Queue: 4 jobs
Job 1
Amino acid sequence: MFTRVTPEVFDDIPARVAPVIQKQETNYRHPLSAGLAITLRHLATGDKYRSLAYGFRCGISTISELIPGVCRAIVEAYKDEVSNIPTIPEAWSTIAQQFEQRWNIPHAIGTLDGKQTAIKKPAITDSLYYNYKGFFSIPLLALVDAEYKFIWIKLGVNEHMSELPK
């Protein structure tokens, strides 16, 4: 699939985020209606902005402003459904029961994983975002429940993931 989302989700996203990302047409600007498709393609493949600009026939500077705005709108639209940090012991027990029923893993309250998201070297740092793999990145650490829903996310930690406070 071009955007790696199901047709149902692909139809649902514009309904939720279009009012936020839609720009007004003026005499000087015709809003880019492909903004959501460009963002979903970038998120699905990790394509560089130059490649997306060529594929969607728009400017790199347009894409560099468009993608962060659409990402913020998607996060705002889905944050209550996707990320739900349990605050009471009974909620954690429910997650543990789901893990045992679905995956036959007792006493688990989540699955934790991390990813290094490549970035350009920030101008204000020497080696702060330089990782052990030999490139600049922002680390993402996430905890998901038995149904792959995010419980907790930590983005942009400048320590090693193994050295995070308990």
Note: Residues 22 and 31 are 8 Å apart (CA to CA).
Job 2
Amino acid sequence: MSVKIRLQRHGKKGKPFFHIVVADARARRDGRFIEKLGTYNPITNPATIELDVDAAVKWLNNGAQPTDTARAILSYKGALLKKHLQGGVAKGAFDEAEAERRFNAWLEAKEKAVENKKEGLAKSKADAKQAALEAEAKVNAERLAAKEAQLAEAKAAEEAEAAVSEEPAAEEAAEESAEGGEA
């Protein structure tokens, strides 16, 4: 029986969510499986991966072949490194404690890299939000300046109309007083 470590799709259309499973190679993609090793959510940034590393290493040692995507996930979470270190222990290159120390050091470095990525994403999101707020404030200031200029033009036009209408009235009043003085 050929055994594969592969992804089993769940979730809605356009919003995939995967279970990482050990299954017979002849089983359907979302069909029967032998054991569930974890989950993978590619929607989040960075992708969320929950994996039982020890169980994955056990299945790799038993001969299970991961698919390409599953291999990338196992590598990302350190299952392939742990299998490699166990091979070194079996050959006598170093002892179990040294293998565990190396694996833990790698895990800490990996967690630090993931945290740095999360912080970078949060910072870029905050910077983008700040830039959008500044752009919006600039647009609002330009809008207010344009409205004030329009109001000033309207007021100037009203004053010009009032001055123009007062001049003929003053001329008519002068003519009436001139006519009234002649009579």
Note: Strands lie at 3-12, 15-24, 35-41, 48-51, 65-66.
Job 3
Amino acid sequence: MAVVNGLQAATGTQLENLINKYLTPAEQQLLVEIRRRKTELLNEIQQLKDEIAEVTAEMESLDNTGEDSKNAARAKQMSLGRKKFNMDPKKGIEFLLQQGLLQNTPQDIAAFLYRGEGLSKTAIGDYLGEKSPFHEQVLKAFVDLHDFTDLIIVQALRQFLWSFRLPGEAQKIDRMMETFAQRYCQLNPNIFSNPDTCYVLSFSVIILNTSLHNPSVKEKPTLEKFIAMNRGINDGKDIPKDIQESIYDSIKAEPFKIPEDDGNDLMHTFFNPDREGWLWKQGGRYKSWKRRWFILNDNCLYYFEYTTDKEPRGIIPLENIQVREVPDRNKPNCFELYATGGNDFIKACKTDSEGKVVEGKHTVYRMSAAEQAEKDEWIACIRQSISHNPFYDMLAARKKKAQKSGHRTKP
């Protein structure tokens, strides 16, 4: 009993001394084992307490699922709808309507596109450009969400054209820019005599942006050339020179920012490319095949080593060029560009291994597509780019309309 009382009263070093004094080695070893087991039991008890706390929290959460669960499910469905929209805009909108996440009104769909949360700006542009009465109502509602009040035309265009990517088709561009011009004139009634003037000037600004900042355009337009391009578009009169000068200076100082969905900056021109994708390209001297990312735009064919490259490895202007399908023993689905007009070499440029720009020495450029249908589409797009672009015919017709002095109607 004295030993027990001594152990209870002792602490720290005193306790260890008493253990060594009164307990046999076997008893001391047993005490160590008891302490170890006690520590394990305390740890297990704490783990059980933690698990019980987690289960209790989960049960309380389940008891409060009601609105939170519905919100979580709604968020999940909305995320799925955005992914579907980015793959196929029409099907994505249909899915969101079926799930009750959008109302089937132009205003609600336009607001969804205007917010743009998680949406591909290319897909937004494709959807807005569709030709149907309902899509045109969505486009108008989308444009109406922009406030261009007291903005100069360049500022308004920067805002508008950052909210989506222009589609490639001329007819879609026409509808979208016409709607923009009507909205701008509605909010700024005393600047232009009619929306056609705003429409033509807007395109002149975009063309100016392309000409000033596209590296393949060697002769940069002067202010005088820009003014001459816009002569007589304001109901037969000219836009004031100071306005055109401020537009020119703004675009020269800062090009339009291009909304890219994947974060890279491939485009050197403003318009959405006529076509882009991977092709195999045959080298000139060694005839080896290398995979390159091609972009067809502005009557030029650009190719890059990677989609993330900011500068092209080569530029092939489609001047005095033809395209033809060719067989190749080593690669399927081949086609090639070749020079016409008695010129042996294609006028092109590329960067060498040191990054210097050198003139290309190709008599032909041979490419290979992954599938026959893809090859046929490339050939058709290149031929169309070589022949003519309907966009310029469309713009010429609108410019002629804007120059008519009899048109005085304001929006």
Note: The beta strands are 275-282, 289-297, 300-304, 314-317, 321-326, 334-339, 349-351, 357-359, 364-368.
Job 4
Amino acid sequence: MVPPVPTDDAYRFDGLRALYINCTLKPFPEASNTDGLIERSRSVMEARGVTTEVVRAVDHDIATGVWPDMTEHGWETDAWPALYEKVMAADILVLCGPIWLGDNSSVMKRVVERLYACSSILNDKDQYAYYGRAGGCLITGNEDGVKHCAMNVLYSLQHLGYTIPPQADAGWIGEAGPGPSYMDPGSGGPENDFTNRNTSFMAWNLMHLAAMLKRAGGIPAHGNQRSAWDAGCRADSANPEHR
């Protein structure tokens, strides 16, 4: 007999925090099509008790570079250290942005570079900083490239230490070539069943995974501690002195 499927109401994720970084090229208060898709995903999470926040990266003076604080490397100002605190306070990170020339926006690339800048920082288990967090992405545009952009973002997140659940991306593109964007009247974006399904599945899978990681205290530290490896103590070593 197939067990009954629990109703949505059986699932609450109070205590989880999700951060959406919108990598649109448009500063506030210009309308962002990516914001429209973010709001659909946010609504799923907030209905289940997740605290969410959206940051529009272009509104912040994020310096170029691959160090945690670029003011220590010649830049007069750098908003990244404050944004990094928001990243570290979140159990879920969703990178979101538009497609330009078939690729992620320049703002998206800068955010990924700055995440990379902090990836060698260690947590209290001597693991890399982003271990124990779930990551996903949302992509919008009116040209081809959703899957290419998502592959790049999700690879980057897992390489930096994030855990990626199944169906961790969602996106929308209109007709190839110049045409309406996601939030334009008549675009069909907000009503698109494929996009809405994937956005919902992504939100649920991120919540499920983040809750599992939180209950488990993150990723087990055995076999992935930088300090132990540097000290020569390696779990898979043939030398008994370094197991």
Note: The first strand starts at residue 17 and ends at 22.
